[in-house]
């Protein structure tokens, strides 16, 4: 599914189809500037998700996704300036940057932390947030992430 909808600026509704055997979704939907929501996708076998939603400036909501097999995931939500709701990512074990998503809810960040892999016994990972999102987190929420081996940073 690499580059499948790349540059489809008018794509509003993400089509529903079986993604259970897909291993590569990198740059699947970048520059889909009218896309607002993403349906539930089976990402359990996906290895590369680089830039999947980059520059989707109208994207508001993404459901819980399985990131347990992801090896490559940079620029996933780069310049998703309207992104508000994330269900989280089961098995997340890669650094995640959400610095360009100033509208992200605290509940979304808690979802990310709760579903992320426990990295406390391996090398720590970083969740980078927009400063306004970071400022809304409580010390307890940051401590929960730290206990799981996740550094919460802001940009």
Describe the fold and architecture:
The protein is of the alpha/beta class and 155 residues long. Helix content is 16%, strand content 14%. It has three helices and seven strands; from the N terminus they run βββββαβααβ. It has helices at residues 106-115, 131-136, 139-147; strands spanning 61-62, 65-66, 85-86, 89-90, 96-98, 125-129, 150-154. The strands form three sheets. The protein has a three-stranded parallel β-sheet with strand order 5-6-7. Strands 1-3 form a two-stranded parallel ribbon.
Labels describing this entry:
globular, 3-stranded parallel β-sheet, 14% strand
Quick structural summary:
This protein has three helices and seven strands. With 155 residues, it is α/β, with parallel strands linked by helices.
Overall radius of gyration: 15 Å
Instruction: Give the helices and strands as they follow along the chain.
Output: EEEEEHEHHE
N→C terminal distance: 31 Å
Contiguous helical run count: 3
Main beta-sheet strand count, sense and barrel state? 3 strands, parallel
| Mean pLDDT figure | 96
Q: What ranges have pLDDT less than 50 throughout 5 or more consecutive residues? A: none
Helical content stands at 10-25%
């Amino acid at each position: 599914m690499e580059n499948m909808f790349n540059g489809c600026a008018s794509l509003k509704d993400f089509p529903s189809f079986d993604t259970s055997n897909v291993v590569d979704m990198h740059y699947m939907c970048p520059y889909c500037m009218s896309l607002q929501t993403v349906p539930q996708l089976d990402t359990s076998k996906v290895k590369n998700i680089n830039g999947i939603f980059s520059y989707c400036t109208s994207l508001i909501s993404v459901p819980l996704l399985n990131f347990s097999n992801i090896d490559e995931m940079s620029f996933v939500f780069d310049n998703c300036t309207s992104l508000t709701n994330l269900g989280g990512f089961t098995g997340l074990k890669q650094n995640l940057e959400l610095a360009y998503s100033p509208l992200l809810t605290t509940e979304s960040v808690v979802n990310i932390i709760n579903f992320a892999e426990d990295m406390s016994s391996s090398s720590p990972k970083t969740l980078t947030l927009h400063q306004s999102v970071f400022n809304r987190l409580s010390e307890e929420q940051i401590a929960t992430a730290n206990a799981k081996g996740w550094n919460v940073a802001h940009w």
